[in-house]
Amino acid sequence: MATLEIKDLHAEVETEEGSKEILTGVNLTVSSGETHAFMGPNGSGKSTLAYALAGHPKYNVTSGSVLLDGEEVLEMSVDERARAGLFLAMQYPVEVPGVSMSNFLRSAATATRGEAPQIRHWVKEVKQAMGNLEIDESFSERSVNEGFSGGEKKRHEILQLDLLKPKFAVLDETDSGLDVDALRVVSDGINRYTEDGDKGVLLITHYTRILEHIKPDYVHVFVGGRVVESGGPELADELEKSGYVRFAGKKEAAAQS
Amino acid sequence: MTESTLETTGPSGLEEHSHGGTEVPPASRGHRFTSYDVEAFEVPGGREEDWRFTPMKRLHGLHDGSAAATGSLQVEVGGDSAARVETVGRDDQRLGTAGAPADRIAAQAWCSFTEATVVTVPKDTQPADAIVVTVHGPGRERTAYGHIQVRAEPLSESVVVLDYRGSGVIGENVELIAEDSARLSVITIHDFENDATQVSSEHVHLGKDAVFRHFAVSLGGDLVRVNTKVSYGDRGGDADMLGVYFSDKGQHLEHRLLMDHSQPNCRSNVTYKGALQGDSARSVWIGDVLIQAAAENTETFELNRNLVLTEGARADSVPNLEIETGEIVGAGHASAIGRFDDEQLFYLQARGIPYDQARRLVVRGFFGEILQKITVAEIRERLEAAIDEELAAAGT
C-alpha cells in the first residue's frame, strides 16, 4: 500500500512579464488502488501540476510538499522521481531523433527496475504489450515519437506505463486528440495497469468522455490552480451536464469578497 | 547564401542570426582561382571570405610563408596488403592531377613537401580489408608539409582509412582519385593531440561512373581546417560526403566543401553533423555547390546540423548553391544549429534514465545516422567510444 500526498503545493512559471503563480495551494492524497479524475477548464493549471510533480525545470515549486510513501519527491531529480515510482504520461510526448524506441524502452526498464531485464523475457514482454495496444512491431525500430501521429504517441505513453509499472501514474490529457477506437485501446491499457489494485492514478482530463471507459473513485474539480471541489463519480456527471460555470463563478465571487 | 550562427555566451545570451544576402557575395564561390605557385596568392589577412572564420594567429605562419619545415610527417600504411604503396619525390608525374591548390596554404604545402606517399588500389581488385594509412604529426612545435595521393584504379573496390595522430603544425594536400567505375570509400580521422594545427586541402577527382564515399571525422587538435573539393572528370560520378565533428573547449574545427559539378548526370550528397561543448569551442562549416552550365541532370543535396551542448560555444554554418543550368534533377540545402534540447532530456529522465545516460543517448542519436554508415566496425566503435569520452569529459 503506497500513498502520494500533495500538500499545499504552490508553483510558478517564468513568463516575459515575470514569474506567475499557477498552482495556488494543491492538496490531494492518492492511495494505491485508487483512481482520481482531475477535471478543470483550460488554463486552470492541470498540466502544470503534472509537470511540477514530474520535476520539469520550467516549473518552479515555491512551497508545499509532495510525499511518496513519506519521501519528499520535491527533493528528487527528475529521474529519481521516476525510479521512485512516479510516472507522467505526457500530453505532448517529445521526439528524440536517432534513439530507437526499443533502445529507449530497455534503458527505461533497466533504470526503473534497477537491473537490465533478461533479453528473452523482455522481447516477449514488449511484444505482448505492443500487441495489447495495437502498436505495429515496426515501431520498435523507429526513433522515439519521431513522426508518430498524436494517437500513436499516446499509445506509446501507455506502452511505457504498462512496461514500467510505476506505483503512481499521472496521465495528462491522455484522452485528448484520440478517435473513438484509439480512446478504447488506450483506456483498456490504463485499466490493465490498474487491474491488480495496487496502482494509483491521477487522471487529468478536460472532458468526461474517457470516464465512460475508466471509472474513477474520486473526482476533483480544479480551478485557478487548486482543487475547489471533490466528490465521487456523480461530480463528473454534473460537469458533463453543466460544465465548469458554477466553479469558475464561485472562484470569481471569492475573489471579490 | 544563407548563413547561420549560434553563439552561446551566457545563460540568456543566445543569439541566432540568419540572413540572406546581407553579405556582399563574391562574384562566384564556385569558380575559384588555383595555382601551384604560392606567390600567386596574396598573404591572407583574415578578413577575406575564405579566411574570415579562421583564427589566423593559430595558423602558426602556415599562411604567410614564415613557417619553415622543421620536421616531417611519418606515414605508415597497413591493413590490406593488396594496395601498392610508394614513397615518391616531387617530380612524380602523377602528383597534382586531382586538382591544383586553391588557397595560399595549399600552395605553400605543394611548394614545400619533399616526398609524397602514393597508395594505389590496382585495377579490378577488391581488397577485403581496409587499407589503413596512419599519419603522425611532426611533434610539438615542429612544422611539416605533406602530400598524400590515394588512387583507386578502374573497377577496383576499396576502403581506405587516413588516420591522423600526434602533434605539431601540418600543411598538406591530399589527392583522392576514383578512376572510371571505381568504388572508393575514404574514412579520414583527425584525432590529434591538443596542440596540433592542421590545414589540409583534399582534392577529390571522380572518373566516369565512379562512386566515392567519404567519412570525415574531426575530434582532436587545436585548429583543424579541411578544404575538400570534389571534381568530376566525366559523367556518372557519385559522391557521398559525410562528416562528424566534436569541438571541445578552445578547439576550432573548420570544414569547407565545394562540390564542383562540371559534368552531366552526376550526383553529390553532403551531410555533416557537429557537436560543440565548452568555452570557445568553435565549428565552421561551409558547403558550396556549383552546378555548371554543362552539368545537366545533376542531383545534389547538402545538409549541416550542429548541436551546441553548453554555453560559450559557437557554430557557423554557410550553405551556398550556385546553379548555372536549369536542367537538373534536384538541388537543395539545409542547415540548422540547435541547442541541446532540454525537453528531450526531461522526457528520457522522466522515464528513470539518469542524466548522463540520457545525454549520451541524445548525442549518440544525433550522430547515429552517419556513424551507422561506416562499414568498418572497428572504426565505428572507436568513434562511438570517442564521442562518449568527449561527453564524459564535459559532464565533470
UniProtKB/TrEMBL annotation, chain A:
It comes from the Bacteria. Pfam families: ABC_tran. SMART domains: AAA (SM00382). Coiled coil: none annotated. InterPro entries: AAA+_ATPase, ABC_transporter-like_ATP-bd, FeS-cluster_ATPase_SufC, P-loop_NTPase. GO terms for molecular function: ATP binding; ATP hydrolysis activity. Keywords: ATP-binding, Nucleotide-binding. Residues 4-249 form the ABC transporter domain. SUPFAM superfamilies: P-loop containing nucleoside triphosphate hydrolases. PANTHER family: ABC TRANSPORTER I FAMILY MEMBER 6, CHLOROPLASTIC (PTHR43204:SF1). Belongs to the ABC transporter superfamily. Ycf16 family. This is Fe-S cluster assembly ATP-binding protein. It comes from Halosaccharopolyspora lacisalsi.
TrEMBL record, chain B:
InterPro entries: Fe-S_cluster_assembly_SufBD (IPR055346), SUF_FeS_clus_asmbl_SufBD_core (IPR000825), SUF_FeS_clus_asmbl_SufBD_sf (IPR037284), SUF_FeS_clus_asmbl_SufD (IPR011542). Pfam families: SUFBD_core. It comes from the Bacteria. Residues 1-11 have a biased composition (Polar residues). Residues 1-33 are annotated as: Disordered. Residues 140-366 form the SUF system FeS cluster assembly SufBD core domain. GO terms for biological process: iron-sulfur cluster assembly. SUPFAM superfamilies: Stabilizer of iron transporter SufD (SSF101960). NCBIfam families: sufD (TIGR01981). Belongs to the iron-sulfur cluster assembly SufBD family. This is Fe-S cluster assembly protein SufD. It comes from Halosaccharopolyspora lacisalsi. The lineage of its organism: Bacteria, Bacillati, Actinomycetota, Actinomycetes, Pseudonocardiales.
